[in-house]
Please model this.
Amino acid sequence: MRRYLRGTPPLVALREVLLAALPAVLTIVLLLQATRPAYQALISGGTGWTPHAYQGLAQDVLEYQIGRLHGNLSAQQQKFRRDIALSSAINPGQFNELAQVERQGAARLSRIARYLEQDTLDSLELASKEAVALNSQAAQYSTVLHRRYVGTLQFLQRLLIGTAAVTGLLSMLLTARALIMWRAERHRHAQREARQREALQLASHELRRPLQSLLLASDLLRHADTPDRQQHLLSLIEESATQLANRADLTRLNDLYLDVTLHVESTDLRTVLWPFASPRVSVSVPLEPVPWMVDRNRLRQILENLIENALKYTDGPVEVTLCGAEGGPQIRIRDHGPGLGVEWLETVFLPYERGPRGPRDGQGLGLPLVRRYAGAHGGDVTLALAEGGGLIATVRLGEPSAVLTEPRPTTLLR
Model:
C-alpha cells in the first residue's frame, strides 16, 4: 500500500486508505447489527432456561392430592406434602419468566396457592388442574423460546453470508479500481514519455537547418576577402545562432513543438519571405506591406520545411508567392517536381510518414510540425497537384489560438 501511494497527494492518499479500509469497517458494522438480535434474545430470554420449576410444582401438587385421596399418608406426612406444594406456589421468585409463561394461557400461579390454602378435596383438584395447565404453558413457552433462538440464529447466518458477499464484492470492486488506476497511471506515464520523445525528435529535426547554416557560414567566413562579404556572413552566423537559441530551449520544448504556445506580434509578412530568395527560390510579394499577427520564428519554420521539401524533389525553380485572401493571407510554395499521388496528399501530414519517394534519412516530422504550427495560427496547410506537374503547398493564416503575451525570450546574439 505504501509503495502504491508513494508520490500521491495527501488528500488522494487519505481517500485511498479510507476506501481500502471500507470493507473492514462495513464488516464490523454489519456483524454488530447481526449479533444484536441474538444478544437481546439471550438477555431477555435467559440462558439455559428450562421449565423444571413448573414441572416440580405440578408434581408436588399431584402427589399431595393423591395422598389425600388414597388416605395412605399420616396427618404429619400430609401436612409435610402440603407445606412443600404451598411453599412453591407462594414463592414466585423461583419461577423464571413467570409473566411470559402465564401469557401463554389462562393458568395462574396465584390461583394454585389460593386453592392449596383452602385445603379441600375440591380445591386440591382445582389446584392440580391449574398446576398441570401452568406446566403445559411453561412447555409451550419453552417451544416459543426455541423457535425464537433458531429464527434469530438463522437470520444471523443469512446476514453473515450476505455480509461476506457484500464485502467480497466491494473488495473486488476496490481491487479492480486500484488496477484500473494503476493502468491509467502507466498509460499517462507512457504518454508523457512519448510526448517527451516526440518533442526531442522535433527539436532535433528543427535544429538541423540553423546548425548547418551556422557551420557553412563559419567555413565561408574563413575565406571571405571583403568587409561586405564578412559582414554578410557574420549576419548569417548571428541569425543561425538566434534560431538555434530559439529552437533549443529545453525548458519550453512542449510550448515549442507540442502544445505550440506562440509569441505573436504584428509582422509585415514580406519581411519573413524575403530572406528565402535565392537563385533557385523566387519570392513574389505585394508592393504594399502585409501586416498580420504571427509568431515570426514559427512562421519561418513553416516556410523552411516547405521550401526545403520543394527543393529536394525538383531540380527546377521553386516559386514562393504571398497573396491576400478572404479570411487571411496565404503563402503558396510551388515546385515543378514529380508530385504525389492523390492518396498521399493527406497521408504525408501524419507523423513519421515520408511518402512514396521520401529520403531515407528523413524522419517524416517536418510536415506534421508545419500543420501544427499553422493550426496554432488559426489556419492550415494543404497540398494540391499543380497544373503541368509538381505540387503547390498553401499556407493559410488565421487568428492565432495558442498565444502567449509575455515578451519574447532573449536571444544569444544581438
The first strand starts at residue 265 and ends at 268. Confidence is low (pLDDT under 50) at residues 405-414.
